[in-house]
Amino acid sequence: MTQRIDYQKQSPELFRKFVEFSLALKQSSIETSIRDLVDIRASQINGCAFCLDMHVKEATIHGERPLRLHHVATWRESTLFSTRERAALAWTEALTQIPAQGVPDDVYERVRSQLSEKELSDLTFLVMSINAWNRVNVGFRVVPGTYDKAFGVDKSGLS
Hints:
This protein is mostly helical. It is 64% helix and 0% strand.
């Protein structure tokens, strides 16, 4: 496998600004459990091993149940997610894999019935962020676990 560049070293100011943006999302109106689910689901869809690894570890630290983590990929069939969580996951999938005709009205109405306007806006920024992180980490093939200690996810007990 070809060694790829270290984007953090090549674009340190842009990286720092994007980290600041991502950290600001932790103060958004979206609760931690949904933020974790969104990060995991988008990372699954985008095939980002680094982000999936990191966000499963974060969710574990936040107290997420292991079985729910295993069910994220099959959230439609699982009985383990609330209506609000399902709406957030549907929105995440729609914005991660934007259909040719755009986001369907039924998906929008579903999420609007569960989230306030502010929450929907914040959720959209969250989905934007994880998709951008997925793209940079997939593009440069960042190895899962590389920054566990730096991000504090080494405390998850998962390795």
